[in-house]
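Try this one yourself first.
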């Protein structure tokens, strides 16, 4: 697959198409999961996954945070009581035992991710117990061959924690920065210095972490073009392997912490687009490749190489180089994904605790994919990962005639083509350089569930 062309920022096109839409970390998306799907259904899907024998991806959700960031939309528990980590880890271990009754432990773990919340909230002894439990219950890859990552808040990092995780096998690190301007940091209650960020990054590099990603957010209160340009210049100077540039979605009616943000201090939609345009230009000038959906990576990074090879995948943790793996997610709110189903754990900590204590898998809702779901998931995933879709790949995999099967969607696709978002040459649907920021709109054409429920999505840009 050829190297991707540069992203083109078309202000007029973006302004016309900047509407709300799903992020497609799954298809169907999580709001459509059914509460009729329970633990027995999940067990059936887990046991079916053993027959496929695909490798495993593990996700462990650590919900605790010491500090409340006002912009945050994650499922979290804010507390300074580090001792709360001990019973949580004990229950994570119990959840592993419950899963292992139905999952073949010889299936290799090719990917592992600690997310949250703040995974490094855990005390050293609790982290050691968690790492030991994972090692006992699952088959980890030797010699640093797995894609094992951890999210880090540099303000909540005990000395020696990065070394402990590296010795376990973690080789990827994601660190939240958001913005380095003191005024913006005060407005969102997330104060941390460039020196602290640089020190953690330097330590991770010295320990041999292979890929380091720094997360930024545009659209936060008190941001302007000059201040965010200064933040981006400082981050680019650190030369992280990956940079995530997220759009702040202000939805205070859904996320209570956002009610502490003064709406009058948010940048206008026009200013927000200017900040994004400036940022994309800076990142591309610095040599970063636009992977898609807010993610940029250096040309030699594994994400970039996977995209060029057509093997990039997208899941609940973002982009991944491991497409053919079943995701087992542990902890409150975590979402698992097999080839045929999704399953989400209880989002309330006490409810999750009660299910584990009753020796039950803590399933709140889920979804069994129909053949049509799997077809549309493939189409959406390839578009969002590759910016192109091969007609022959769809037809050989699913036994359908691509244009005929999507005849009802064709007028919408051709309208997007007329507006310059995509091209169709009879064999390949390709997202243009101008359409890449709006790829979610193309994916929405193939979403059979869109509009069936009243769901408030974030804006595309």
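Now uncover the answer:
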């Amino acid at each position: 697959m050829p190297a991707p062309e540069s992203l083109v920022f078309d202000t007029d096109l973006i302004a016309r198409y900047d509407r709300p839409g799903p992020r497609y970390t799954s298809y169907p998306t999580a709001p459509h999961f059914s509460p009729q799907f329970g633990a027995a259904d999940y067990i059936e899907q887990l046991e079916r996954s053993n027959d496929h024998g695909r490798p495993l991806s593990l996700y462990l959700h650590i919900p605790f945070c010491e500090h409340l960031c006002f912009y945050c939309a994650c499922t979290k528990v804010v507390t300074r009581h580090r001792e709360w980590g001990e019973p949580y880890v004990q229950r994570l271990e119990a959840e592993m035992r419950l899963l292992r009754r139905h999952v073949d432990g010889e299936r290799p773990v090719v990917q592992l991710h600690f997310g949250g919340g703040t995974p490094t909230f855990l005390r050293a002894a609790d982290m050691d117990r968690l790492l030991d439990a994972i090692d006992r219950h699952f088959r980890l890859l030797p010699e640093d061959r797995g894609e094992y990552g951890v999210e880090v808040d540099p303000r909540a990092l005990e000395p020696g924690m990065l070394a402990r995780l590296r010795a376990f096998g973690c080789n990827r690190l994601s660190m939240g920065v958001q913005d380095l301007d003191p005024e913006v940091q005060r407005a969102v209650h997330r104060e941390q210095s460039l020196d602290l960020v640089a020190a953690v990054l330097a330590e991770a590099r010295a320990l041999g972490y292979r890929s380091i990603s720094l997360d930024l957010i545009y659209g936060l209160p008190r941001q302007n073009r000059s201040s965010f340009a200064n933040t981006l210049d400082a981050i680019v100077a650190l030369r992280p392997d990956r940079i995530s540039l997220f759009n702040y979605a202000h939805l205070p009616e859904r996320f209570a912490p956002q009610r502490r943000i003064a709406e009058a201090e948010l940048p206008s939609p026009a200013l927000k687009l200017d900040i994004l345009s400036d940022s994309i230009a800076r990142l591309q000038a610095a040599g970063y490749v636009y992977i898609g959906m807010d993610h940029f990576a250096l040309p030699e990074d594994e994400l970039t190489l996977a995209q060029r090879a057509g093997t990039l995948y997208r899941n609940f943790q973002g982009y991944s180089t491991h497409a053919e793996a079943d995701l087992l997610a542990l902890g409150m709110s975590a979402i698992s994904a097999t080839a045929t189903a999704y399953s989400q754990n209880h989002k309330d900590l006490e409810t999750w605790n009660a299910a584990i204590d009753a020796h039950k898998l803590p399933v709140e809702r889920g979804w069994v994919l129909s053949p049509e779901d799997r077809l549309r998931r493939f189409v959406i995933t390839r578009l969002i990962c590759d910016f192109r879709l091969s007609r022959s790949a769809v037809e050989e995999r699913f036994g359908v005639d691509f244009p005929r099967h999507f005849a009802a969607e064709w007028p919408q696709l051709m309208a997007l083509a007329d507006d310059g978002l995509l091209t169709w040459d009879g064999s390949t649907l390709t997202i243009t350089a101008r359409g890449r920021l709006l790829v979610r709109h193309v994916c929405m054409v193939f979403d059979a569930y869109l509009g069936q429920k009243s769901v408030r999505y974030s804006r595309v840009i």
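Discussion: The longest helix spans residues 269-285. The domain at 32-330 is CATH 3.80.30.20 (pyruvate-formate lyase- activating enzyme).
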